[in-house]
Amino acid sequence: MPNIRMKMVDMELLLLIPQQVLKVGRSLQKPVDQVFSDYAERVIEFERIASWNEKEENKAVYRITKDIIPTKEDWIGLFKENFSSLDDYITYEYVSKCASPCEETKGSSPKCQPKLQRPLKYEVTFSELPSRCKGNYCLVYFSQSEDKVISVLGISDPFPIATADVD
Predict the structure, then answer these.
(1) How many domains in the chain?
(2) Residue 167 lies in a domain
């Protein structure tokens, strides 16, 4: 992963996210000395979600692809598919409270793994969704420390949320 050391007065940062483009421009009055990394690589990869239902408990499975240690403040937010701000989350869950380690085999239910080996695959549960959550959404994994978001580590592919039909 290449690191770039920048010393510039004016900078424009363009982050390309699947089906999203977030553009941040800033004019600075003093030189900037910062190390930037290549964030096109996903540290967290979500498995494909066929669909969710707003009246049911919904689950998503994600995999940690790099050697990171999740913190108790990491969280996963639910966003509309074409969100334009990281503040536009609909709801969220803290990873430490709602994620369970999963076995790597398909079709198995989540099981705790020995503490000697940190699991790489987790299942997260969203027990409630706000009413009228119809349309396409995506999940975003945030790394956070002391009330400050450090990084976006992964974004799921868009998936539909259906409204339960009541007869």
Answers:
(1) 2
(2) no
